[in-house]
Design a protein that fits this description.
This protein is 51% helix and 0% strand. The chain is an all-alpha fold and 91 residues long.
């Protein structure tokens, strides 16, 4: 197994010194400093592989929203799963 690098190892070979306060104060956002490169690097999302969902505005009872939000991230997908099961069971 390879021995992990220590801070002393990193300090001994570092060719990237810490920035000074003056350098940090004069820093500009990447897209402002190099706009052409930033534009080239911008990612564009391709077509979705799975069928897309339809954005809709619906009104839900507060207790329904509270319940699903309390389950954490992905609550909207879980709500969608419950509604799909309902549709399947009631066809």
């Amino acid at each position: 197994m390879t021995k992990p690098y220590t801070q002393a190892d990193m300090d001994a070979v570092s060719d990237n010194p810490e920035l000074t306060d003056a350098q940090l104060a004069s820093a500009r956002p990447f897209a402002e400093a190099l706009p052409a490169m930033a534009a080239e690097m911008r990612r564009v999302r391709g077509r979705q592989k799975k069928p897309t969902k339809i954005p809709k505005t619906i009104r839900l009872s507060p207790e329904v929203v509270d319940y699903f939000e309390a389950t954490g991230a992905g609550w909207q997908s879980r709500l969608d799963d419950v509604l799909k099961r309902y549709v399947t069971d009631h066809r």
